[in-house]
Amino acid sequence: MGGSTVSVRRFEEHRPRLRAVAYRLLGSLGEADDAVREAWLRLDRAGEGDAGGDVRDPGGRFTAVVARVCLDRLRARAARREEPLLREDGRVRLPDPVVSRASGPAPEQAALVADEVGFALMIVLDTLAPAERLAFVLHDLFAVPPEDVAEALGCTAASARRLADRARHRVRTAAPPPDGDAARRREVVEAFLAAARGGDLDALLAVLDPDVVARSDGGTLRPSVLRRGAATVASQAVVFARLAEAAHPVLVNGAPGVLAVSEGRVVSVMSFTIHGSRVTCLDLLTDPGRLGHLDVDALVG
Predict the structure, then answer these.
(1) What is the pTM of this model?
(2) CA distances from 178 to 124, 264, 278, 294 (A)
(3) Is 90 domain-assigned?
(4) Number of domains into which the chain is organized
(5) Residue 230 contacts by C-beta under 8 Å, 6 or more apart in sequence?
(6) Same domain, 192 and 58
(7) Domain ranges, residue 139
(8) 267-295: buried (b, 16+ CB within 10 Å) or exposed (e) per residue?
(9) What are the residue ranges in the chain where pLDDT is below 70?
(10) Interval 179-197: pLDDT, tens
(11) Do the strands 265-275 and 247-252 form a parallel or antiparallel pair, or are they unpaired?
């Protein structure tokens, strides 16, 4: 990384927030890191790396540049017609999970999961147009003023507000925030696991919302599947039982979740969205390509 020692230090002070912005915009931890690096290079090449010297709000300036990098990447995805997380045919590609110990996230993860940006929200975000996604993430999740959102988008403040309003309506409809405290949600997860381990179909049906949605993503070698309805989801009790036997409590994107381990390796990450003491969304990632970096000892040791 180039730039003066002062400019590098200033940028590094803001890196956790910048990475959190990029993760919410892109849904990929690796791409988020790449976007933050690219933002620094743009600033450094433009002689703005030492933004704190002449810019009233260096954090805002850094955020705007990261946002524009991410917007370019989102528009490139759309131009390539890349598959969104939720496809029309019901197949899914889940976002990268942020997995931490059940006792709480590590300091470097805190900004990433500060507002429990779970799978349900990330999937909805990926259905938004690039400009809508940026407007919502910056304005609603990071309290960036509409004028600054407009600058990142290259539009008027009124247009930025309309984009955020439109996105907000879709998000609230499709992914309302989870309710209940963390302890109560953990109890619901444990009830689900107990029912799965015991093969108790009635108990599974009791803990699943009638309209529950279950999404699984196994990567390129295993098909991704979407299932709807308690009876359909509960019919996978054998699969859930196998995972439950190897389950360890963790936090997934800040919410109660489960990590399944076999022979010292992570074989799945399960995330739960809970409303009214029932599971409304169940997201299961079994893609070995995106689970291989998880440190079992650090998470469950």
Answers:
(1) 0.85
(2) 14, 32, 11, 26
(3) no
(4) 2
(5) 204, 205, 208, 209, 210, 211, 212
(6) no
(7) 5-84+129-174
(8) ebbbbbbbbeebbbbbbbbbbbebbeebe
(9) 1-6, 47-56, 80-92, 107, 110, 113-117, 180, 301
(10) 767 888 899 999 999 999 9
(11) unpaired
